[in-house]
Design a protein that fits this description.
By secondary structure, this protein is mainly α. The protein has 10 helices and 13 strands. A hairpin with a 2-residue loop joins strand 5 and strand 6.
Length: about 350
């Protein structure tokens, strides 16, 4: 499943360089195109060397740079597909779609499942990764005009809706080896792209917000919320974002976050639930992605920009390092999104 809050030592900043050239002005006797002539549409694309340290020879993504023996996750391909849609790179998206179909998809009868981990012995999917992949596929169809992408997304969601339920709840995963779904719903998994018929909203609506931090998951068998002694800010930010999506504010968490940012100018990877104090000394690029997103949602644009600046400072301070792809790609999703 997702690897939240791995220590960040840096991120590979691989950018294509180009020299400036100046075009000579046309001479009076040169023919110029009419002003109303249709101009070619600029094609966006990801630089060829972008994230190259994370790819094997077949362009499958491993979790750590220059470490082909590290894990190959549905999380990674889903996030990269999301990035390729944002960058409108049709060719690279098509390549990753083929990798998805060739290595990640498991078909058993009518079931169309995505393995959370390939090249190893794994027999479960991951709800959040599947939802993200389906959403990227649908956006890619709209952008590139490839109906097969939406058809694949439909098969993913149909399978989840049909077999990945327990006691009336859509749950974290389905194990096709034992033919049994999980017994819990992780609240941070209920992202914006979760289909309405999965009834995710009721789990978010009933969370006790009298405490600063949210419980991490809901036990669907006992029908109780479960919380750990140490919290991960990524999970907490995602839950707050998920609640905002359905019109629910989280005042105590919001107040704590803004105060922590104003006083410290940074957020740490884990906090003690009871004392509200940091439990570690490291930060996370992915955490700052979600912090930036949350601040934008609640109208704190200045703080959101400050978060981007802090993330970039981390890059400048640490240089290239053993950054997990989850952090690497979230940094680029945050800094290269022209809508933010």
């Amino acid at each position: 499943m997702m690897k939240w809050l791995l220590p960040v030592m840096g991120v590979a900043m691989l950018a294509a360089c180009s020299e400036e050239t100046s075009e000579p002005s046309p001479q009076p006797d040169e023919q110029q195109a009419p002003e109303d002539q249709e101009q070619p549409v600029e094609q966006k694309a990801v630089p060829e060397d972008f994230a190259e340290a994370y790819f094997d020879e077949n362009n499958f993504i491993h979790a750590y740079p220059s470490a082909p023996d590290s894990q190959y996750l549905s999380e990674s391909i889903g996030l990269y597909m999301e990035y390729l849609v944002m960058m409108e790179d049709e060719e690279k998206f098509a390549e990753q779609y083929e990798n998805l179909m060739d290595a990640f998809v498991v078909e058993e009868g009518d079931n169309f499942l995505i393995n959370w981990l390939i090249f190893e012995d794994a027999t479960v999917n991951a709800l959040i990764d599947d939802i993200r992949i389906a959403a990227a596929l649908r956006e890619a169809d709209q952008l590139f005009g490839q109906p097969k992408y939406s058809e694949t997304a439909d098969r993913i969601i149909e399978t989840i809706s049909r077999i990945q339920t327990n006691n009336g709840y859509t749950v974290d995963y389905y194990d096709w080896e034992v033919e049994f779904p999980a017994q819990r719903v992780t609240l941070s998994y209920l992202i914006d792209d979760v289909p309405k018929d999965m009834n995710a909203d009721r789990v978010l609506e009933n969370v006790d917000t009298n405490e600063v931090f949210f419980p991490e998951y809901f036990d669907v068998v006992e029908e109780v919320y479960v919380k750990g002694d140490v919290i991960h800010p990524i999970d907490q930010l995602l839950i707050a974002i998920n609640r905002e999506r359905i019109g629910l504010s989280s005042e105590r968490f919001e107040e704590w976050l803004k105060t922590e940012w104003e006083e410290e100018g940074r957020l740490y990877g884990r906090y003690d639930r009871e004392t509200l104090q940091p439990a570690v000394t490291y930060e996370s690029l992915a955490m700052y992605f979600f912090m930036n997103e949350y601040f934008l949602i609640i109208g704190e644009e200045e703080a959101a920009e400050e978060v981007k600046v802090r993330a970039t400072e981390m890059i400048e301070e640490n240089g290239e390092g053993e950054t997990h792809f989850f952090d690497f790609i979230h940094y680029h999703l945050m800094t290269e999104d022209e809508s933010k």
